[in-house]
Design a protein that fits this description.
142 residues, mainly alpha, Tetracycline Repressor, domain 2, 65% helix
């Protein structure tokens, strides 16, 4: 059955992501999420490909694996909502940032930290952009 091997790995991601602490500081919390995603992916690049990339043409994840993936994405949305960031474009941007940094890291500095160390900076830029779009976020009010 296609995707069965992905489900346990996806479940592991969701369970470990749930352990990432929230501090109440938006940049710190966003950076923690990005850095967790990157570290989880870097620990096993083949698993990263299985879970987060469509490397096999025509591949469709199993219903079980897809449901777990949605659960993981919902956790990221909750992390953002806790800081007043609610639009879908924000989660799209954040996943693109995290995936881009991760792909660069795995491709160009496997085992290193060249792009991993940019996670906090990326979170700062992401949040600053969100504040520009939604000035009420600067006041700390969700």
């Amino acid at each position: 059955m296609t995707g069965v091997r992905g489900a346990p790995n996806a479940r592991q991601y969701v369970e470990e992501e749930a352990l990432v602490p929230s501090t109440g500081d938006p940049v710190t919390d966003i950076a923690a999420g990005v850095e967790f995603f990157m570290s989880f992916s870097m620990a096993n690049p083949a698993r990263h490909q299985l879970l987060f990339q469509r490397t096999i043409p025509g591949f469709v994840p199993s219903v079980e694996s897809f449901a777990i993936a949605v659960e993981g994405l919902d956790a990221a949305r909750r992390r953002l909502r806790a800081h007043g960031i609610t639009d879908d474009a924000a989660i799209d941007m954040l996943t693109a940032i995290g995936t881009g940094l991760t792909t660069q890291q795995i491709s160009n500095d496997p085992g290193g930290e060249r792009w991993l160390r940019l996670g906090r900076q990326a979170a700062e830029m992401f949040y600053a952009h969100q504040v520009r779009l939604h000035p009420h976020l600067a006041k700390g009010a969700p």
